Amino acid sequence: MSTGFGDLKIFSGSAHPTLTKEIAEVLGIPAGQARLRRFPDSEVSFQIDENIRGADVFIVQPTCTPVDQHLMELLVMTDAFRRSSAARITSVIPYYGYARQDRKDKPRVPISAKLVANLLSASGTNRVLTMDLHKAQIQGFFDIPVDHLFAAPVIIDYLSRLNSPKLTMVSPDAGGAERARAYAKRLDAELAVIDKRRTEDGSAEVMNVIGDVDGRTCIIQDDIIDTAGTIQKAAVALKQAGAAKVLACAVHGVLSGPAIERVQSAPIDQLIVTNTIPLRGEAQQCKKIVVLSVARLLGQAIRSIHEETSVSSLFV
Question: Is the pTM of the predicted complex or chain greater than 0.85?
Fold first, then answer.
């Protein structure tokens, strides 16, 4: 498989080697050979164990926890490929860390999403392939091409096979209503939005459900589930409003801190996430969590980028 950028080669950092292996299988090529180690003081040591001169290199590395460690690995790996004369280097970042710091909403704070974009460019990245950015306008922080994929086709395919009657997609806040509406349209479902408001003394949140959920199967849809506090409260509010069944879905299952405890205690039948981030620790044992693979979607995008064909068909 060769184009003007040479042979297609795919390499993995330490963040998610399993996903890299799945993508390589989709592409029908072996994962690249390299050694990624750490010096005793935790500095990254990296060496490529095959010739990549003139190759079209894709590095798969979601910047998930530990975020700084995985980001630094990606930068060091990219520098190694650049110095080894790769024709083109594409950073495949299924989960883009620091995306939640995308603007100055308070005095004297950084715009970390832009900083990370600058670091990737400075290290030698020629283009970025990512999935479901927290805010789509983060693409504008880059001065290199960005291919922004969506996991919606994978999640919607799974939800459509549940054959749930009286389906309602629920946005856990007003900001996610547009995303939930897109899912509802594809699934021929109703739409509901949860309005969060603090009490006058600021001590608690009151969750008001806007939309008809009584006796319906409700699916809370979000892009990221971190500590699962919002999902837990939303599920309780939906049950109190008469929902017959509650599920939740998100692209990125960050699941940090008390997330698993909250998921277990919440009135949620299933939490559906994708494998943009690997499950770790307690999350691997949680029977409520269903993990969908985005390897085929990423593999198809990588093939299209390598062959210089359109990736727009993947958005359908």
Answer: yes
Shortest CA distance to 77 belongs to which of 122, 144, 12, 131?
12
Please tell me the distance from the alpha carbon of residue 284 to that of residue 291, in angstroms, as a whole number.
Answer: 10
Residue 170 is predicted with a pLDDT of 96
Cα-based angle 294, 253, 21 (whole degrees, multiple of 5) = 35
Closest CA to 303 of 90, 77, 84, 82: 90
Calpha distance 205→310 (Å, rounded): 45
Tell me if residue 239 is catalytic: no
Structure tokens at 31: 């994962």
pLDDT in tens, 257-309: 999 999 999 999 999 999 999 999 899 999 999 999 999 999 999 999 999 99
Distance in angstroms between the alpha carbons of the first and the last residue of the chain:
26
Q: Could you tell me which of 287, 222, 281, 295 has the C-alpha nearest to residue 16?
A: 295
DSSP string, the chain: -EETTEEEEEEE-SS-HHHHHHHHHHHTSPPPPEEEEE-TTS-EEEEE-S--TT-EEEEE----SSHHHHHHHHHHHHHHHHHTT-SEEEEEESS-TTTT--S--STT---HHHHHHHHHHHHT--EEEEES-SSGGGGGG-SS-EEEE-SHHHHHHHHHTT--SSEEEEESSGGGHHHHHHHHHHHT-EEEEEEEEE-TTSS-EEEEEES--TTSEEEEEEEEESS-HHHHHHHHHHHHTT-SEEEEEEEEE---TTHHHHHHHSS-SEEEEETTS---THHHH-TTEEEE--HHHHHHHHHHHHTT---GGGG-
Which of 111, 116, 115, 86 minimizes the C-alpha distance to 101? 111
For 280, list phi and psi in degrees, rounded to 5. -130, 155
Catalytic pick among 196, 239, 245, 288: 196
Q: What angle do CA 138, 141, 143 make, to 5 degrees?
A: 130
